[in-house]
Amino acid sequence: MAKYDLNTKEQHFATTRKEAETIVEEAKEDKHLTSWKISEKHNKYGEYFIVDLQFTFNTPKGLMEVE
Predict the structure, then answer these.
(1) In terms of CB atoms within 10 Å, which of 38, 41, 42, 56 comes out highest?
(2) How is the beta sheet containing 7-14 ordered, strand by strand?
(3) Phi-psi category of 63—alpha, beta or left, where left has phi over 0 and alpha has psi -120 to 50?
(4) Model-level pTM?
(5) Pick from 44, 46, 28, 47: nearest CA to 36
(6) pLDDT tens per residue, range 51-60
(7) At 32, phi and psi to the nearest 5?
């Protein structure tokens, strides 16, 4: 029996807030997006943004057992 990943997490890097918001807007087009978060980070080179996206796929058990 094959295994399927029903929960997927993605992490993206952005240099500007506008770029981070664009990533989120594109991800919102996917109906499986369940949560998103934009984190502002700082280091010696300046600020950057980490975008965390979580997708959840609810698939009926009968479909998952078919290979």
Answers:
(1) 38
(2) 7-14, 46-56, 33-43
(3) alpha
(4) 0.75
(5) 28
(6) 999 988 776 6
(7) -90, 0
